[in-house]
Structures are given as structure tokens and as C-alpha cells.
Design a protein that fits this description.
Two copies of one chain form a homodimer. With 576 residues, chain A is of the alpha+beta class. The first copy, chain A, contains 22 helices and 17 strands. The radius of gyration of chain A is 22 Å and the shape is globular.
């Protein structure tokens, strides 16, 4: 029987709650967004006791379904001031699901200021003082928690950035090797966790039974088919396992949509040095490993272990967006420098995309020279120290821009824009502008169609068709994010007409339901309604659904501009 | 013939423009807000070339009318992101009016990054490189400009804070002694001026004729009566000239509405040490001077020269709100420490109220101990230096709170709240919440009625009547701010039924019109319509018309809370 676990951080107590309306039947992002919409005042201060941090495994998480181990983390974002769902892999989600936990809600705020570790097992919930972990990075925190509570337990933790309540702090999840390379990165949910004084949540599912299946045989058939569908698609079956997401560096650069030097150009002449092909080559030379999954049962396996030149472990979960942000965006072309920053961000618990966008703003303001990797690394290392620069840069691109008086800030709703220039990938520009998450690519990944050619063809350089594309993908993604399936399953879903029915079959067989594909669309719409209405009540209007004015400059090499009118953009959520 | 002067800072050029619709007949705040509403994109970045800085003397400024020399400064606020009118005394406004300049519009932004000084005389406009002034504070800047361009010229300048585009930077105006004690303090318009690379504007009205009077005799009679009305009122005729605005310290403390220790209590046990009575006593002992006017022809003369213990000039224009902010709010009880910070803020060009509220947040976050004046002064001194703390604190209370992860931030629309606790002065709470300026007291100074008993009686501790009071005063103030009359004339206007007709008579006689008191109300409403609609298009909703949640705590000694519901607050601009 699935339940909701509520942790009261003020009293270090907890209650179990039956899952009733309006939460019944929800998972992942549908659960986190509904709960925040229902229980969090949209105008509260994100770091006040009134905000809540919510975790929810997806509807399919915990069962034997390929690539279904994602977790949704939600709250009122300390960065954007709007609602936030940030999505991560790692071990914890499947364990929560196996313990029958449909959501964990972290509430209140202790007066004493002491951090806690909370452990959840089949026998119950325990609070421990986190004195010995406070001030540690995620690497050391996870290592010590595995040592104390057993190798292989699920861990969710924050580093020093979250402890300091910096608004670009991320929340990290141990991968199958106990490393923090997996993160709910965006929107500063690590600061929210820090404000709750929760250093780490440990989940151990030892002795838990398998998740119940309403129609077991039907479920197994569908799950088998699902794995085959994923493996058969060239992106999830070949490109991602071979090169990781960094396979996109050369592709997006070729498309002229790789934002270079704080979004001044769409091509970086040294892109090759940062590419997935180059990374795979270095991994091979140095004894790292490609093709790792972030959670058991993932068949896509886009992760990797990246070693330094001396052959020692440097980082993992080394993504395209991170490499772009800290690389092409800043003109830093040394992949090892970028990898070190990726490692440090994971350790301190800082969003890699926001860090890279912030670096661009620091370079814009003349604080760090363009392309200067060592200076960038030195600045990043200030985040966990008492150096007050850390308090500026750890609050992100918009904040750093304000500190420096810089007005060329590529952000929407104060969240730095990711790795696709909206002038050469117009669909993603609409997603950036209108997603309730702020400047975000995963919320409606039009790149899949516009640049990768999945689900049809659309021209990324012109407006036509992109409004519908972004809209439909935002709705579909809200649904996918509620299932616990990795977003990278979407390539197959877009191309293979059997994929979506297969997902519906799995959900139906798991819960004994009779949903149709239309119900999945309805679910996505319901999620977005919760999110858009929360933001409206938090004080957002369509005036915030805008890209910065400088996107009206021409972007080489295609020399296109951002030319959607406000009226066109504002069609997005009409009739939602 | 009155004209609009447009300065193009990108090309260092200017044009004169005839005043036509929609600007004809407007002065002061009516002019600045109309111009911004018409010409500035509400969604532009406040520091981008698209924003404009607008100056406008009031409708009565320049003529011989008591206390009519105020200037309105407007723009999209770098602090709040909404529209801003900030109002100042000083010499410049009357000189602009005598030169027939109804508004100065500072536009564009130079690429070369060099600061300019612009001088306006009856013979024309000149641009000078500001190389020798860049990096100087306002005291030295004004002294050098008087030396160069003549003692007694009008000067408007920014200090280092404005040059750095810190979003709480103020714009300063030379008083009759060439000191920068007069400021358009709130909303960071100094950062806007800094972004335009305008270090100073010098206005010399030598040789200019008197302002034309359509009906001269009628005007003189009304103006004579006006001066008598002001002098006959106990506040403008006695209290303000004798003690300055700091006369309010004891009064507001007695009322239990003096926010103490970052808005925790309504009484400060050492208020007496900071009082106007104490200040007057020290001024007498040390050879300073009370009863100075910020511009020629002011009969209220609320300003003063405050000397240090050694008898040397320390500061001037030393106001109640500044003393409260840096004093009771921070538990600093040494008036000389507060006076030194007042002096430094004037010199660096930083809003004194925001600085005091920011100090409260710094103390809340443990960066400076409560009541530690020397530490506060040391922090303030970092603003003009390369110390990066200056870039945090110079961006104000909300920004500093985000840097520190502090959530007890007394601000509305990111502007720190002034010197009256909204739980013990509920009318002003409504003004804070709903003024398009953000947390501001001058926009609808209900204190006049609630605590000072002008214009009737209302209980500041209960809700009843305060919505209408705040509304009517906000409308009236928008009109007063358009005449160039000092807000301190409002006490007499509230109490003396002959005062408003007298103002209308002066405007009619000056311009040959036949306005009625109703037209003045309509003007105020029109100003607010421009402002509220600009903010709406900038993305503000009623969700930003809220006080921070912590005002639901009880405030000693009256133990009242902020208990207006959102629905009650949202009546304010219904039907505007």
C-alpha cells in the first residue's frame, strides 16, 4: 500500500499518510507539482518554513521497466520564485518505490540550525544529527554514508552550496558506484533542502518486497517489448551509450546552434575538442568507462567514468549541457578543465548549467578573461569557502549580472539558458520562454525533432510549426516526467508508434487500470495547469515569458534573430 | 517657451523638442511617469540602452512659490524592475525651470564606456569628458564642478555606487551650499544614470529671465497666501524647522511603530539618543545649524548642518528615515555613527534607507553584530572599493538576503521598507504594499493622519478607514509630486481648507488656466494609471502587492499583526 511520508524538520518527527485525493494515482512530476500547488503558498519566501521539498518516484519506478528509475524533486524554486520540478537518476527512486513510498514531503525548519540525516528503511524512519557531515562535499558525504549505512543504499544529499542556501544549489543522488554525478540540478532546490537543514536522506530497501503488479504477465510482456523498443532506436540504442549526451556537441555546432561566448555566435571553432567523440577517445586512452547507467535497469547507459590525464577518476555523469556551459559558452576548450569543474560542481552541489552561464556573465563583466580555465576553476573553488565571491556566483547568472552591473544575461525567469541558441533552434526558444520552470531545455525538447529529426522534420531556423512542437512536447514531457521514465526514452516514443501504447500498457498492468494514450496527454495538461497556475499566483505574467532583448541581434552563421512576437508566444498556454 | 531636452549619450548629442501631447501641461512626476510609460519598454533590462532617465521640474517650480523647488527623477527602476519616480530638493530644479526646460530625457548608452559631464546654460548644451571626476564621491565632484563652472550652479551627480551600477545607487543634487545632502534616493536611479555614463549634469541659469506668469497679480496674491498657510501650520511652521524630520523619532517610538531590530519590535529603548531633540541639542553645542532650506524659497527649512564632536562639518539633510534605518533598525544608538554613515551614503551615492535595511539583513545573517556601528561603517566603506562585499550590499536588502540565505527581508517589490512598522501603522502598510514604487512611505503618507493627526483622526492599529486613507493620499501625492511642491506642504493641505484651492489658484495664474480641485485629483489618478499599467506590462501582478509573511508575527508593544487579506489589499487600484 503506497503512502506519503511527511518529515517535520522542526520537530524531527514524521508521519505516514494514506494517499488520497487530490494525490491518488500520481507519480513523479505530477505528484510534486500537485502537492506544491495544493500546499505551498505561491507568495511565500522559498527559504521560509512555509515552503516544502517534495520527492516522488515515477508511476513505473521500482518495477522492472527499462530506464524507469528517475525521481522528481519539487518545491517553490529559490532561483526563479516559481514552481520547480527537477529530475534526476540515481539509486534512491527505485528504493523509495519498493518501500511503497509514493512521495516524501520535507516540511518545516528547525530553529536550532543543526543539520540532520534522515534514514528510511522498511522498519521506519530515523533522524540522526549530521554534525560530522556538515560542511562536507557530496563525494565525501556519500562515501561516509555508504560506510555507515551500507554500500548500495540510496543517498540524496547536498554539498556546501545547499548548506549555504545558494540559489543555484543542486541536490545529488548516489549512482550505482556511490558517486554524486546525478543531480536534480536546476532551480536551486539544494538551497531549499539546506533551508530545511536536511543534509542527506538515506533510503535502504533491504527486505522490501517487489512492487505489486496488478496484472503480472501482461506487465512483463509490455516491459520486455519496451526494452526492445529503446534498444532498437539509433539514439537510445547507439549514440547515447557510445558517446554520452556529449554526442550533441558536434551535431549542435554543425547546426549553428551551439551558443558561443555568452550567446554571441552559434559555432565554436574548437567544438571538436569538447565533443563526445573526443571524450570517448580520452576515456578509452585513460582507462575510464563509457556506457554506464545511472540506475539499475537502464538500457540507454549514457553515463561514463571520465579519468584525468594521470588515469585517476575525475568525474561521471558528464553531460552535453554542462560541457557546453563551461566550454563553448566561455571559450574554455580544455575538456579536462571542464571535467574538473563538473566534478567540483557535483561535489559542492551546484548546478553545472547555471555555473557555466554565470561564468559567461563573469567574463562579460571582465572579472575572468574569456577562455581562462584556471581562473574559472579558482572562482568555482570559492563557493564552499568564506570568500564572499562564492555567495555571488553561487546565486547564478542573473544575480551575478546584477552584482556586476552587466545586462547581457541569457536567462528566463532568472534561470540561465541551456545549450541551444534560440535563434537557430526556435522551438527550444519557445520552451525557454514559456516553460513554468524558467529557461529549461528538458521541459519541451524540440531539439529532438528540429535537429535530431525524431518524430518528423521541422526547420529550426524559422518560426513555422515550432509553437505546436514546443507545446506538444511540453505536454508530453510533463506526462513522461510523471512515469519515472528517462526523458531519453522520448526519441523512441517520437519515432516508434508502438512506444506510447507500450507505456500505457505498462501503467495499466502495474495498477490494474484501463488508461488510453489520451489519458497520458490529459495527465500532462493537468501537470502544466498546476504549474502555470502556481506561477500565476506567485506573481508571474506573460511579461516573464520573454527572452532577453539581446536575442534580437543576429546570430552567426545563419544570421537569424529571435522573431516571435509577444502575441505569438502568448498562444502557448491559451486554453490549457 | 518650455521645451524637452533629449540627451543622446551614445552620440554625445542633443535635441530640443517642443512639448506636445501626450506631454503638454505635465510637470514633475506626471511628466516622468508619462514619458516612461510612453517610451520605455516595460520588459527591457533597466541598465540597457532601451531605458531612459527623465528629469522634470514641477508645474510651479521656478516661480516664486514657497517650497516649490522639487525635482522628479524617473526611469524603469534597476532595483524593483517597475516604474520609479524619486523626488529631491536642491538647486537644479528651479534653474531648469527658469531655462524653460520642462523635462530632460537621458537616452542611449555609449559604447566607449567613458563618463561625461553635461552642462546646460541659456546658451546651449555642452558635453565634457568626465575623466577627472570618474571615481570621485559626490562631495568632491560637486566641489570641483562649482570650482570649474561657478559657485551656485545646479549640479546633479552620482558617486561611485552609481558608476558601478549598484541597484541602490542614488542621484544627488547640490544644495545651496554645494553639498550633496539632497537625493533622489530610492529605486536605484543612480545605477540608471551610471549605465548612461552620465557622471553629472550642471545647470546654470545665469541670464535666464523669470518664468512667465500668465496672470501676474493673481499669482503673487496666491503665492503670498500660500507661504502664510505653510508658516501657520505647527508642523511645517514649527516642528520641522526646529528639529528637522528627526522630530519623528520620539513621536513614532511613542506610537509603538518605530521598527526596531529588523522589524521585531515597535519601540527602541534608546530612541531618545537618536531623536530630533537630541540632534538639535548637539547641533547647538557643536556649532552646526538647524533650519536650512534645501532650495531657495523654502519656508519649511527642515534641513540642517550637523557637526561632529570636534565641531567639523559631518553631514546635512539628515533625515528621520535615514536615522531610523541605520539606527533603531540595527540597534546602533550612537547618532554620530549614524551621521557618518549618512555622510558616506551621500558621498558614495547610496540610498540611506536601503543601506539601513540592508544592515539589518547583514545583522540578521550574522555578518555584523547587532548594534555594532564601527563594523557597519567599515562595511559601508567597502562600497566604493574593489572589495566584492560592496557589490553585494550596494544592491540592497533583498539582494543581500539572497546572498546570505536570509529570508527575513522587510521589502516590497525588492525595495526595503522605511521607518514605520505596518502592524502599528496600518495605513502605511497599504501604501508599502500597493504603491507602484515598491516599499515607499512618501507615496501615500498616512502617518500624517494616523500618527500626526493631520486631516482628521484614524486609528493606526486597526484596519478600518486605512484603505481609503492610503488610496486618497496616494492619489493626492501623485498630484503634489507633479507640482514641484515639497511633500511637507501636505500637512497644511490636510488641515487647512484654503490650501488646496490656493495651489490650484497658483497653477491657474501661472499658466492661464481654469482648473478646479477636481482636476488635481484627476491628475493624480492619471499619474497612477501610467505607473500601475507600466508595472502590469513589466510583469507585476497583485501577488507582488504583499508584505512579507513575517509581518504576521505580533509586534510589541501593541501586539498587533498585519491582518489585511489579499482581497482587501486588492481593492486599492480597482477602478483606477
Amino acid at each position: 500500500m503506497a503512502r506519503i511520508l511527511r518529515l517535520n524538520m522542526a520537530e524531527k518527527s514524521y508521519v505516514w499518510e494514506e494517499v488520497k485525493a487530490p494525490y491518488a494515482g500520481l507519480g513523479g512530476r505530477a505528484m510534486t507539482s500537485r502537492l506544491i500547488r495544493q500546499e505551498v503558498s505561491p507568495t511565500c519566501h522559498p527559504l521560509s518554513a512555509a515552503n516544502k521539498l517534495v520527492l516522488a518516484p515515477g508511476l513505473l519506478t521500482g518495477a522492472t521497466v527499462a530506464s524507469s528509475g528517475r525521481i522528481s524533486v519539487g518545491g517553490k524554486s529559490p532561483l526563479t520564485g516559481g514552481i520547480k520540478e527537477s529530475n534526476s537518476g540515481g539509486l534512491l527512486s527505485q528504493k523509495l518505490a519498493r518501500l511503497g513510498v509514493q512521495a516524501v514531503v520535507v516540511e518545516g525548519r528547525p530553529d536550532d540550525g543543526e543539520f540532520s540525516v534522515v534514514r528510511l528503511t522498511k522498519d521506519g524512519v530515523e533522524f540522526f544529527p549530521a554534525t560530522e557531515y556538515a560542511g562536507l562535499g557530496n563525494y565525501e558525504t556519500m562515501a561516509r554514508l555508504w560506510e555507515r549505512f551500507g554500500k548500495g543504499v540510496g543517498v540524496m544529499s547536498i554539498g556546501q552550496a545547499g548548506e549555504k542556501r545558494l540559489t543555484t544549489a543542486s541536490i545529488h543522488f548516489a549512482d550505482p558506484w556511490g558517486r554524486p554525478g546525478r543531480a536534480a540540478g536546476r532551480g536551486g532546490l539544494g538551497a531549499l533542502m539546506g533551508s530545511k537543514k536536511l543534509k542527506a536522506l538515506v533510503v535502504d530497501d533491504k527486505g522490501a518486497p517487489p512492487v505489486p503488479l496488478a496484472r503480472s504477465e501482461e506487465f512483463k510482456l509490455a516491459a520486455h517489448k519496451w526494452a526492445k523498443i529503446l534498444l532498437a532506436h539509433p539514439i537510445s540504442g547507439q549514440a547515447l551509450p557510445t558517446y554520452g549526451t556529449a554526442v550533441l556537441i558536434n551535431i549542435v555546432n554543425e547546426a549553428g546552434a551551439l551558443p558561443t561566448q555568452n550567446f554571441r555566435r552559434g559555432r565554436f571553432e574548437f567544438a571538436e575538442d569538447l565533443s563526445g567523440e573526443r571524450m570517448a577517445e580520452l576515456i578509452k586512452q585513460r582507462g575510464g568507462k563509457t556506457k554506464e547507467g545511472c540506475h539499475p535497469g537502464c538500457v540507454i547507459q549514457c553515463s561514463q567514468t571520465y579519468h584525468d590525464a594521470a588515469g585517476n577518476y575525475l568525474t561521471s555523469g558528464f553531460e552535453y549541457e554542462s560541457i557546453w556551459a563551461m566550454g563553448a559558452n566561455t571559450l574554455i576548450r580544455n575538456l579536462d578543465e571542464v571535467a574538473l569543474m563538473d566534478r567540483l560542481c557535483d561535489d559542492f552541489g551546484l548546478d553545472t548549467i547555471e555555473w557555466g552561464v554565470t561564468l559567461g556573465v563573469l567574463m562579460e563583466g571582465g572579472v575572468i578573461p574569456w577562455g581562462d580555465g584556471p581562473a574559472a576553476i579558482a572562482m568555482l573553488k570559492k563557493v564552499p569557502t568564506d570568500d564572499v565571491w562564492g555567495r555571488i556566483v553561487g546565486n547564478g547568472s542573473a544575480f551575478t549580472g546584477q552584482a556586476l552591473g552587466v545586462d547581457r544575461i541569457p536567462a528566463v525567469k532568472r534561470q540561465g539558458l541551456p545549450a541551444y541558441d534560440p535563434r537557430a533552434e526556435k522551438g527550444i526558444g519557445l520552451t525557454y520562454a514559456t516553460s513554468p520552470m524558467g529557461g529549461d531545455h528538458t521541459a519541451g525538447y524540440t531539439v529532438a525533432t528540429n535537429i535530431l529529426g525524431c518524430g518528423g522534420q521541422a526547420n529550426p531556423l524559422v518560426k513555422g510549426g515550432n509553437l505546436k512542437l514546443s507545446h506538444d512536447l511540453q505536454v508530453a514531457t510533463a506526462a513522461i516526467d510523471s512515469t519515472g521514465l528517462c526523458l531519453f526514452t522520448a526519441f523512441a516514443v517520437l519515432d516508434n508508434p508502438e512506444a506510447l501504447p507500450c507505456i500505457v500498457d505498462m501503467i495499466n498492468a502495474r495498477y490494474g487500470l484501463a488508461l488510453t494514450a489520451d489519458d497520458v496527454v490529459s495527465l500532462g495538461q493537468a501537470v502544466l495547469r498546476d504549474e502555470v497556475s502556481f506561477n500565476r499566483d506567485a506573481g508571474f505574467t506573460t511579461a516573464q515569458d520573454r527572452l532577453p532583448d539581446f536575442f534580437q541581434e543576429k546570430l552567426p552563421p545563419h544570421n537569424t534573430t529571435w522573431d516571435f512576437s509577444p502575441e505569438e508566444i502568448d498562444q502557448m498556454w491559451k486554453g490549457l
